[in-house]
Amino acid sequence: MASFDSLIKDVLPYVPGCPDSLIETTLRSATIELCEKSNAYTHDLDPITTISGTYEYEFDQPSGTDVHQILWATYDGNDLDPISPRSLELNYPDWRDKSGIPTVYLQKTPDTFWLVPVPNAKNVNGLLLNVALKPSRTTNSIDTNFSNDYRDGIIYGAVYRLLRMPSKEWTDPVASADYFNLFQAQVSDAELRGRGGNIGVKRTVKYKGAGLSPRKRYGRYGKELDY
């Protein structure tokens, strides 16, 4: 796992005087935003055993993460469809009183989900889930591979958030807007990569801090720094 405080040194030059603790908190928030918007942090959960008469189950996600969204689910080899709370009550008004082979699922919280109809038999390791994760609000770290793959996006996200804070010595709304656009571009790229849309595409990435380009970065108050 990679700690958020290990990225502080990459953000601090853009927000001189900002406390390390605030930078770390903002890095976590930026990572959560990146994960929520891109669904790029995916994970196959361990197979789940269903119990007859039980419709609510817990995710067994990695420590320090919440499940943002179920991407796909299968029960006994058959695909399950997602359903909204309103559609569930409209289409299955008495679902709690009926059992059968589950055909739909509803995510209730970052930790729990429902199966409908209520399973009518025990099915050992019969339920498979692939989920999109995000860091929890209390964790101090993120998966190392994810941190390495989406490092720029995390840093851009933290920088734009910090620069838009009002009445700070590092406040810079103009530069914040630029870094927000860079962050959005990283989100789009992460979403594409998460869907496998860039398979076979050769990429050449040069990382130089959290800069706008290998030769252009914003300093304080939006002034460009040249190298």
List the topology elements:
Layout: E1 2-3, H1 8-11, H2 20-38, E2 42-44, E3 48-50, E4 56-58, E5 65-75, E6 78-79, E7 81-82, H3 85-91, E8 99-100, E9 104-107, E10 112-116, E11 118-119, E12 123-135, E13 141-142, H4 144-149, H5 151-163, H6 173-194, E14 216-218, E15 224-226
Parallel strand pairs: 7-9, 8-11
Antiparallel strand pairs: 1-13, 2-12, 3-12, 4-10, 5-6, 5-12, 9-10, 14-15
Structure description:
The chain has 6 helices and 15 strands. It is 31% helix and 26% strand. Residues 197-227 have low confidence and may be disordered. By secondary structure, the chain is of the alpha+beta class. It has helices spanning 8-11, 20-38, 85-91, 144-149, 151-163, 173-194; strands at residues 2-3, 42-44, 48-50, 56-58, 65-75, 78-79, 81-82, 99-100, 104-107, 112-116, 118-119, 123-135, 141-142, 216-218, 224-226. The protein has 2 domains: 2-40 and 143-195 and 204-226, no CATH class; 42-135, no CATH class.
Summarize the structure.
By secondary structure, the chain is of the alpha+beta class. The protein is 31% helix and 26% strand.
Mean pLDDT: 88
Amount of beta strand: 25-35%
Helix and strand composition category:
alpha+beta
Oligomer: single chain
Q: List the domain count as a whole number.
A: 2
Query: What's the N-to-C terminus distance?
Result: 33 Å
- Tally of DSSP β-strands: 15
Largest sheet: 5 strands, antiparallel
Shape: elongated
Radius of gyration: 21 Å
Low-confidence stretches: 197-227
**What is the succession of H and E elements?**
EHHEEEEEEHEEEEEEHHHEE
